[in-house]
Amino acid sequence: MIEAHNLKKVYRSRNVETTALRNISLKIRRGEFVMILGRSGCGKSTLLNILGGIDSPTEGSCRFLGRELGKMNRRQLALFRNKKVGFVFQAYHLIDELDAIRNVELPLGYAGIRHSLRREKAEEALQMVGLEERMHFYPTQLSGGQQQRVAIARAIVNNPDVILADEPTGNLDEENCSSIMELLTQLNENGSTIVMVTHDNSLTQYASRVIHIRDGEVAEGDLR
Ligand SMILES: Nc1ncnc2c1ncn2[C@@H]1O[C@H](COP(=O)(O)OP(=O)(O)O)[C@@H](O)[C@H]1O
Ligand SMILES: [Mg+2]
């Protein structure tokens, strides 16, 4: 489903160059729960952002369902992200001025889905993450774990081909961390393809495959 070839990413700011990705090739197949594991600063977020079309590589290419992301213009990329990808971030990134259900409805608005259907789909997504009773709560009225559930509902509401999660449990205590990991596992069992990045070794038990990243490269032994 996703094929990345020889991705390289160099950040240039003033006179400093940082090589975030040296040379990364990988494939993600439909139905997998892939965990990308590596230390802080090794390039995980950069990689995930490139796979999801948020960022572009300095060199190399990324194909998503056969389409070359590098050949899409801004509008096509925005549409691609909206329809095909559900992002989940460490810090939830909910909009504080909107209640849970309106946060979840947001991507449906961009997708041009009519209002009555939006509500229905958003309710369904909140049900899947076990938060239907809190749909009119605002983010500040929800715990971290609950906010991440809302963010996951927002990520799945458009029925994306893949969920890309960047340290989704990074801000949570152990109990909330397990419950978010169980939720992701359940979504994967129901057919969602998931790519998650983390620095936390203990979470690899949830994955169907682990890719180790070191200094912007896939570690030896993981090359395939
Ligand atoms: N926008 C940016 N500008 C300059 N350097 C960056 C930028 N984003 C990330 N980097 C650098 O690229 C490297 C990889 O960062 P990142 O992908 O965020 O790693 P990780 O998510 O594994 O912690 C780090 O050295 C980081 O400082
Ligand atoms: Mg990161």
Q: Bound compounds, please?
A: adenosine-5'-diphosphate, magnesium ion
| Overall 3D form | globular
Q: What is the H level of CATH, i.e. the homologous superfamily?
A: P-loop containing nucleotide triphosphate hydrolases
Radius of gyration over C-alpha positions, nearest whole angstrom: 17 Å
Kindly describe this structure.
The protein is globular. A six-stranded mixed sheet has the order 6-7-8-3-9-10, with helices on both faces. Strands 2-1-4-5 form a four-stranded antiparallel sheet, with helices on one face. It has helices at 44-51, 74-84, 100-110, 115-128, 144-156, 174-189, and strands at residues 2-13, 16-28, 33-37, 59-64, 67-68, 85-89, 162-166, 193-198, 209-214, 217-218. By secondary structure, the chain is an alpha/beta fold. α3 packs parallel to α5 and α4 packs across α5. α6 links the parallel β7 and β8. The protein is built from six helices and ten strands, in the order βββαββαβαααβαβββ. The chain has one domain (2-96, 140-218): Rossmann fold. The longest helix has 16 residues, at 174-189. 41% of the residues are buried. It binds adenosine-5'-diphosphate (ADP) and magnesium ion. The site of magnesium ion has 3 residues, from α1.
